[in-house]
């Protein structure tokens, strides 16, 4: 997939050596991370925000898309940046957080930033999606869990059950490789999230292999926090994290 958004001029000034891969969430679109991507671009970072396969078309197409295609799109974005930049970070929202964590387990990312990352389901029925997909093709949308009025992440109006099954496979795979994630991690967790349960963050804390993990609570946002009241705080706090980690990495290289 080609990068989405006006990011062709990204990667300039003192931050030009740093790349950021951003991944949107399940049934969503790059719109949920567009403001963050533009913020990073303005800071001079090289940014990639791919439209994940099965997204941006119809929920029926998403129902036919295996989870490894979602991950492959993120990995290709990383590989492209890694050829051009000395330091690459992985970041994502919701399912995109899981993809970023899996990327960190498989590639030498400098750090991971995850906003309300999904690793478990809030609805117990989702665990049976592999069977239910043959009975119920779709369920109501999980989109736009946003406290701030007037926001639209441009997600699907229906959630395909077959894709929920694939999401569960991604969650299980990512949970299994979390001990291989050794890069510093910054996690944002909304106090009120109607999509991803607290058990996801609890699982991340238990299994991640990184010695440096910070979980920051968001008190004024729902699930899609990158479009909510705390968005600017997320962007600024992520800037501090990126600058700190990249600075330490550069100092280590010089030493």
UniProtKB/TrEMBL annotation:
Parts forming coiled coils: none
Origin superkingdom: Bacteria
Domain AB hydrolase-1 intervals: 20-233
InterPro entries: AB_hydrolase_1, AB_hydrolase_fold, Esterase_lipase, MAG_DAG_Lipase
Record protein name field: Carboxylesterase
